[in-house]
Amino acid sequence: MNQRYVILIVDDNPNNLFTLRALLKRVKDCEIIEASSGEDALSRVVEREVNLILLDVQMPGMDGFDTARHLQMTERTRHIPIIFITAVFKAEEFIRRGFDLGAVDYLTKPIDDHLLINRIRLYQGLFARERQLAEMVVLLQRNGKALTVARDAAEAASRAKSTFLANMSHELRTPMNAIMGMTGLALRHAEDPKLRDQLTKIEQASQHLLAVINDILDISKIEADRLTLEQVSFQLGEVMENLISLIGHKALDKRLKLRVDLSPEVAHLSLQGDPLRLGQILLNLTGNAVKFTEAGVVTVRAHLEEDEPDGVLLRFEVEDTGIGITTDDQQRLFNAFEQADGSMTRKYGGTGLGLAISKRLAELMGGAVGVESTLGQGSTFWFTVRLHKAARTNAPALAPSLSSAEEQLKSQFPGARILLAEDEPINQEVSRGLLEDVGLTVELAEDGVQAVAMAKRTHYDLILMDMQMPNLNGVDATRAIRALPGGERTPILAMTANAFDEDRQVCLAAGMNDHIGKPVDPDVLFETLLKWLVQSRS
User: Which H or E run includes 411?
Assistant: First the structure.
């Protein structure tokens, strides 16, 4: 016990004081102090902290009952346990009176030594536990404050990380849009074969750099809990077709067989989830299989593991006849920035992020990921995802267009007036060049204030709006344009390097019709322009 237990004995008889003091020596870790009267006792409790009072009832002047009454009058002393000890006042009425005055016990003489000692030890133990509880309360309060500080610091760090990610996304994508846009513009007009070859190599290197940037931003978004999954209706066959279109030529270049094992009932399942992220996992795994396989076959298969009334558990496998992976290396494959062998980075390239991203995405979809591999024989990477079933629709398929969106813009909307709100000079040039190439008339606003003023003066067929601009940002500019007479009908499309899902939601909530991320893919730009110009005309 850190603090000695202080017992005050109050009795006007010196013999009684001596007897009690001798008896209490059997109690460990306690200190005995004495008072020969009620007045003396009140002085002692003022001078120091007392934990228990053994109080005689019959004393000259202030008796034990009066002394207890005075102790009850102050906050500091009213909670001190009192044991009355008496040889005279044994009647029931005196016992009740003692307890009414706050006593915890009432003993009559001759005192049973064992009884008194046990009672004192009981109150001593209660006092020790009370002290421990008080210390625990102080510790909990201190820890609670520390946890609050730590929580606030973690939330501040999370907000700072989110802000950093948003800024990094914008700062990386903006120059990438300039590089890829200028290269694309030059390719559209270049005729010299050597120049076209050089520009194509720049374009391919830019695409590779963009893929690295996207991987880094994806893993950062996942770790910051900022990646959200869409919930849209799709069919698995569509995802597989897109996978083949993206990876098939790479397998063909290496003379590999690319097989897809997908039963018709699975291919035509109407599902609800995020087909883009599902396709990203498949592309990562299949791309790796093609990369690390020099000869043979890459097989992609999918089958139902669980079929519930409202959802399914799908298992995907990507099997190759490639170089294989050792058992030790398999343990760290799904860690960020890891590859089975560091030397592979030089031979095969890659950041080591694809598998880490795939693992996190599969887990976000309620599934898991794993690998089975034999060195020198090949590997099978697998993952599972849980998806909701979507209601089947019998909507007629749209007849495919015989001409591209670019050609349709040229033929159907020559001279259509487009307001381009963009503050970055190179991106202005890239966007204007793409728009004018398809016959559109472009007027430029260098910030949100100019965009609102020009939309107020002139009716535009469509507005392309950057998000981050000086003076007035694109979101507030859109709200202002929507408030203008007739402004609610003009299609406004975000064309911005703010490419996070929440950025898209902010744009749509402000009244924009669609969102085009930078770097801008010309085909995506033309298809989106065509869609909204057609709707606006109708």
Answer: helix 405-412
By C-alpha distance, which of 29, 28, 32 is closest to 4?
29
CB 352 within 8 A of CB 339: yes
Size of the chain, expressed as the number of residues it contains = 538
Residue matched to tokens 């790796």: 288
Residue 534: both structure tokens together: 């057609």
Single pTM value for the model: 0.57
Inter-CA distances, 372 with 41, 318, 349, 352, Å: 83, 10, 22, 18
Residue 194 CA from chain centroid, whole number: 49
Q: How far apart are CA 278 and CA 241, in angstroms?
A: 13
DSSP class per residue in 302-327: EEEEEE-SSEEEEEEEEEE-S----H
Residue 326: its pLDDT value, please? 87
Closest-CA residue to 334 (of 368, 292, 310): 368
Q: Is the four-CA dihedral 47, 49, 54, 57 of positive or negative sign?
A: positive
Torsion of CA 105, 108, 110, 112, to 10 degrees: -30
Cα–Cα distance measured from residue 103 to residue 154, given in angstroms and rounded to the nearest whole number: 52
Token reading at 32: 């005995």
- Express each pLDDT in 381-404 by its tens digit: 999 999 999 876 554 444 455 578
Rounded-to-integer distance, Cα 462 and Cα 317, Å: 45
β partners of residue 21: none
Q: Of 63, 43, 53, which is closest to residue 102 (Cα–Cα)? A: 53
Three-state secondary structure of 460-500: CCEEEECCCCCCCCHHHHHHHHHCCCCCCCCCEEEEECCCC
Asked if 369 and 334 count as a contact pair (C-beta separation under 8 A), the reply is: yes
Q: Beta partners for 386?
A: 313
Q: Based on the number of CB atoms within 10 Å of its own CB, is 511 exposed (0-12), middle (13-18) or buried (19 or more)?
A: middle
Tokens of 496: 């911005």
Here the tokens at position 160 are 């700072």
Q: What is the rounded end-to-end Cα distance, in angstroms, of the chain? A: 87
pLDDT in tens, 169-223: 667 777 888 888 888 889 888 889 899 889 888 888 888 788 777 777 777 777 7
Residue 236: DSSP 8-state: H
Question: Which residues touch 25 (CB under 8 Å, ≥6 apart)?
Answer: none
pLDDT for position 189? 86
CA dist 376 → 259, 326, 339 (Å): 21, 9, 16
* pLDDT tens per residue across span 27-43: 888 899 999 999 999 99
Query: What count of other Cβ atoms lies within 10 Å of the Cβ of residue 99?
Result: 13
- Cβ neighbours of residue 213 under 8 Å, at least 6 residues apart? 172, 173, 176
In angstroms, the CA 292 to CA 284 distance is 12
